[in-house]
Records
---
Amino acid sequence: MSSEPSLRDPLRFNRKTPPCTVVIFGANGDLTKRKLMPALYRLAWEGRLAPGFAVVGLSRTAMSDEQFRDHMRESVEKFLEDSPFDTALWNSFAQGLFYMAGDVGDQNTYQRLAGCLAEVEKNRQTGGNILFYLSTQPSQYAPIAEGIGAANLAKPAEGAQPGSAKQWTRIIIEKPFGHDLASARELNTRLQKVFDESAIYRIDHYLGKETVQNILAFRFGNGIFEPLWNRRYIEHVQITGAESIGVEGRGAYYQEAGALRDMIQNHLLQVMATVAMEPSATFSADAVRDERAKLLRSIHVMKAEQVRENAVPGQYGFGRVGGEEVPGFREEKGVKPDSQTETFVAATFFVENWRWAGVPFYIRTGKSMPKRVSEIAIHFRSAPLAVFHKEAEDGDAATNGPVPNLLILRIQPEEGISLKFNSKRPGAGMTLRPVSMDFNYGSSFGERSPSAYETLLLDAIIGDATLYTRQDMVEASWQVVQPILDYWSTRKFTFPNYASGTWGPAEADAMLARRGHTWRRP
Amino acid sequence: MTPAPANVKPDRILAELSKLWTDTARQDRQPGGGVLRACAMTLIVFADEDNTKADALGETLVRTMRSHPGRVIVVRLREEDGTLDSRVFQQCWMPFGHHQQVCCEQVEITVSLNRLADIPSIVGPLAAPDVPRVVWFRSSRIANAPDLTDVLALGDKMIVDSARPGAPAFADLRVLANAGCLVADLAWTRITRLRQLVASLLDGRELSAIRRTAIEFTGADATAEVRYLQAWLRSVLPAAAIDLRRVAGDAPPGLATIRIDPDVSLKIKENCAEYEIGPLRQHATLSERSEHELLVEELNITGRDSVFERSLQRMTAWTPRS
C-alpha cells in the first residue's frame, strides 16, 4: 500500500474535474437552454465542478452578464429534470457565468473573447483550461475554429506546450459532421489545422446514454454472453431508432438532412459499432475507439444495385399518432410540397469479418412512428434440435413451440435490458412459453441516470474521449452511407409512402421478408 | 435452553418464502405481467423492537431494495426473556409504465437478548447463496449482548453507525478491521460529500506543505463525524497539526468550520457549505443524507475500503456517548 498521502477516495468520490472555462458559441440557442446549462448546473449541484468553474456565453444578441444569468436561470428552472433547484447554489454558480455578444464571422470577436477569457482566468483561477462548445449552425464550425486559432486561443494539444503541461484547450462540435464524405473530410481538415485531433470532441449524445455505455459493460464485463456474440449463435440484429413526432418546426433543416444523415450516419451506426465491435485491450479512449472504427470500416459498402435491395427510404404522410391527427411531411412548415427527403430509412448492413459474416444488421429509423423507442434486438438462432416439436404438432403448433431467444437492449425511453427465453408452462405436457427477464436502469432500481449531456460534458472536461467520435470513425460511417445517398439522389420516389403512426413503408417489411425475418414491434 | 419454536426453523421459513412467491405470481396473471424476483445480496439487520420507529426502518429498507434488491432478514431485539418468533413477507413495487412488479423478500425474526445465541443458526441457512451478506447493526440493545462472535461471522461486511447510541467503540471497530473484517460506519459515510469538497479545494496543492488545520465544532462533545473528519485530515495532511476546537453556542452538535492554512476555509451550514479559497467565495450543497442514501453508499462497496481503514487507525481514543 502506498504511504504517500492522497486526497483520492475512488470508492466514494466522483471523478475529479480540473478547473476550466466553457465557452459556448450559440449561447442564446435552444440547446444551451434545454440541455447544456441544466447539465452544467446539475454537475455543480453534485459538487462535480471545480471551485472556479466558469462559462462564457457568446452569441449575436446583445445582453449583459446579469441578463444572461437571468435567462439561464429561467432555462435551468424550466428544463432541469429529476433535480431540485437550489437558489443559493444557483447564485454561487451564476457568479461564474459571463456573456459576450459578438458575430462569429468577425475576427474582432475572437480578440475580445481572448481578453474576456484572460480576465476570467485571473478572477476564477481556471488555470487557462478552455473547452469550446460549438452549439451553432454546422456551417459555422470551421470558421469559428479558424477564428479561435487566429486569436491564438487554441493551444497545442495536452502536454505539448512547454511550461504548461496541465493546460489544455478542447473543442466540442455537434453532429452533423459534414453532409457527405467530401464535406466531412474538408471539415476535419480545417478543424485539424487549428486543433489537434485529440482535442476535437465530436459529440454524439447517443453514445452518452447509459444503455449504450452499458452495452460495453454487458458484453465485456460478463463472461456468459460474449461466447455467443457471433454468427454461430446470432441470426440477425435489429436496431431501431423511432420517433413519434414529426419534424416539428425543423422542416427547413430536416429537408436538407433527411433520416439517413440525421440518424443513421452517426447515432445508429455508432450503436451498431458498439454492439458488434471486438473487445478492446483496455478501456482507454483510443483503444475503445480503435475497435469501433475498425468495425465501421468492416461494414460492407454497398454498390448501386445492392442499395436498391438493401435500403428503403420512406416519407410520412397524413395519419394519426397517439390519437391525434398529424400532417404529412410535405405539409410541414418550411418543407417543399414535392420534397424528396426521406423521413424513414430501413437498411440492411453486413459486417465483413469472421465474427459477423452473413449476419444481417437491420437498421431502421423514422419520424412520426407509433411510439418513441430506440432499441437493439439481438435475435439468437433457434435451438439446433426441435425436441419439443412433437408436442407442437399435436395442436398449438403456432403458439406453443419454442421461439428463438431474444435479447433486447433498450436505449430509450426506458433504458434497460430484457432477455426472452422459453420455459415450460406449468401442468401436464411439455408446452413452452416465452418468458422475459427484465432489467430496467432507471425505474426498477431507482437510481437517477445522468443525462447524456452531463456525462459527455464531464468527460470532455476530464479529457476522456471514449464516448466521442473520432475523425476516422466519422469518415468510415460516411463511406457506408455515401453510396445510398448517391443512389437515392438519382431516383424520384413516390412519397409519401407511409402514414404517420405506422412502422414505415411496406418495402421495409419486404426487405426483411426476403431473408425470412420480420421487424420486431417494440 | 428451550428449543426454537417450529415457525423459526430455517426450512419452514424458506418454505413460506417459496409459497409467498408462488402466491404472488398466481395473483398477477396478466399477459407480460408476473413478478420479477430480484436478489443481489442478503442484508441482515439487527434492530430494536420499537413500534414507533418500525416504519422508519421499513421505509429505509424498501428504498434500499430498489437499488440493491435482495433478501432482507430483520432481527428485532426485545428486552423480554424467551421470545423467538418469525414472519415472512414481500416488498413489491411496480416500476412506472411497466406490467411487471419487482419484489424482494423479507424475513422478520423477533428475539429477546437472552436468545440471541440462537440467531446465527437460524439466520445463517436463510442467507441467499452466492451473493454478498451484509450485517447492519441498527440496534442499541445489541451492545448489551454478551458475545457477538457468531453474529459477526454471519456477514461478509458489517455496518454500524457510531452516531447512534450503543454503537461499538472505535477501538473495537479497529480490532475488527485489523482482524480482516470488512467494517463500515455510517458516521463516516455522512461526511463523504464534505470530504470530497475539501479534497477538491486542496486539489493540486502540496499536501506535505500544509502545517495547520483547525476544525471547530458545536455541542458538548465532538461527534463521530467530527472525529472522523479529523482522523481523515490526519491521514492526508501528514505535516499538519489538526486542531479540534469547541465553539460556544446553542447550535446542535456538529461541524462548524474548517480552516486549512493558508487560504481555505469552510463554514458548514444547514444543508450547505460556504467556502473561501483565495479570492473566491462559493456555495456548495451538502444536503443531509437519508439513512437509505448512506446505506446504499456502503452497499456499493463490497471490498476493502483502505481510506476508511486508514482513518479509523488514526482516530483518537474516544467512547461514544450512550
---
Amino acid sequence: MPFMSRPKTQIAAKTFAMLMCAFLLTATTGCTSAKSEMHTTAVNDPLEPLNRGVFAFNNALDRALIEPAAKVYNFLTPDFFRAGVQNFMRNLRTPLIVANNVLQGDFKGAGVASARFVINTVGGVAGLFDVAGANGMPFEPEDFGQTLAVWGFGEGFYLVLPVIGPSSLRDTAGLAVDTVADPVRLYAFNRDEEWIYYTRGIVEGLDTRARLVTAVRDMRRNSLDYYAAVRSAYTQKRRSLVRDVNPDAPKAQAVQYYDEGWE
Amino acid sequence: MTITLSRRLMIVGMALALLLPAGAAMADKRDDAAVGFVQKMGDIALTELTGKNITGKEREGRVRELLRKNFDVNAIGRFALGKHWNTATEAQRKEYLSLFEDMIVRTYAQRFGEYAGQQFNVKSAKAISERDSIVNSQVVQKDGPPVAVDWRVRNNAGNLKVIDVFIENVSMAITQRSDFDAVIQRGGGKVEALLESLRQRKK
C-alpha cells in the first residue's frame, strides 16, 4: 500500500493504532489489518441475520418515505439548485476532511481541501459554487473510517445501521468520531440552535439519496439477493476509497483487480 | 572488484535503458488498441441500442449480438459462479451460462431502453498484466456528475474481449459473484437454488 510508506507519521500512528486496537476491538474479532483486506473480495459478516433484519427495515422505510421524497426533490428542483445544495454541503464538511487528511499524513490532500474551502467560501458564494473543482481541485471525500484504515485497522465486520445503512465496525467508529468532531454540530449546539444541525442532516441525507435514485433502482431490479449485492458494492467502494489516499497515485489504482477466479 | 561491479551495473543499466522504451512502446500500442476497442463498442451501442422506435425484442437481439462479440460471457459467468463452478454438473453449467447470458441481455436492454442522452468518453488505458488492460471511461449525465466506468479488457492473441466492468470502482463481476453466492448459500449450498432463481427471473 502506498500510504504505508510514510515513516514520520507511521510511528505516532502505530502507537495510537495499537492503543485504539486494544480499546476498540477487544470485544470483537480482533485486529485484522486493513492491508490484508485489500487483496480479497470476501466480506466478514458474522451478524448477517441481524443485519438482514435492519436492512429489511431500512428498505421498507426507504420505499415508503425516503425514496419518494428523493424523487419529489429531483422532480421539483432544477439541476443547478441541487448542484448548489451539494456544493454547500460538501463545503461544510471540508474542515473535517482537512482534519482527516492531516491525521492520515496526507498533507497534499489537506492542502487541496483547505484551498478548496477558502476558494469556494470566498469566491463561490459561501460554498454554493464549486469554483475550486472547476479549476483542477476536485472534491475528495475523507472520513475517520478511512483514517482508521490508513492507521491499519481492519473493517472488523459488516454492519447495517438503522436508517443510515451499510457500514462496518470500523466505519461506525469513524462515523461516531466524525459526528463528535463535526464543527457544524459544535457550533449549533453551542448556540442552542440544534435545528441547524438536524436540518443539515436531513438535507444532506436527501441530497445523497436523490443522487442514488437510478443506482438503487438498478441494484434492486438486477440483483437476486439485494442484501448481498449491496454488501459487496459497499465494501468494494470503501476499500477503493482507502486505497485512494495516496495523493500521488493515479485514480485507476483505486480499482483493485482480482485474479482469483479468472481463467 | 568495485570496478567490475560498477561495470556490471553499467551493462545492466544500458540493457535496461535499451529494453524499457521498447517495452513501453509495446504497452502503448496495446493500450491504444484497447481504447479503440471500447470506444468503438460504445459508439455502436449508442447508435444501435438506444433508439426509441425498436421493439423490446429487437433491442434484446441487438444487445445479445453486441455482448457476444465484445464480452467473454463464459469467462464472466464462470467467475461469477466462483467456487460453485466446481460442484456444478456439466448440465448445470450449461444451463447456468445460458441463463446468465439471458440475465445480462435483459439488464442491458432495459438500461439502453431508458437512455436519456448520456455521453460516453473513453479516456485512457493501462496494461495491468500480460493480457489485460484497464480502459478508463466516463459516462457524462445531463444532470449530476460524470460516472467513472472502467473496463477490464483481455487480449487473447489480438482478439479483444471485456471481462469485467467497474462502475465507480465497484466491479460488476465481483458484485455478481457475491449475489450468486448468497443465493446458493441460502439455498443450502445447492447450485440448483441459483438456477431456480434465475429461471424465475426469466418469466
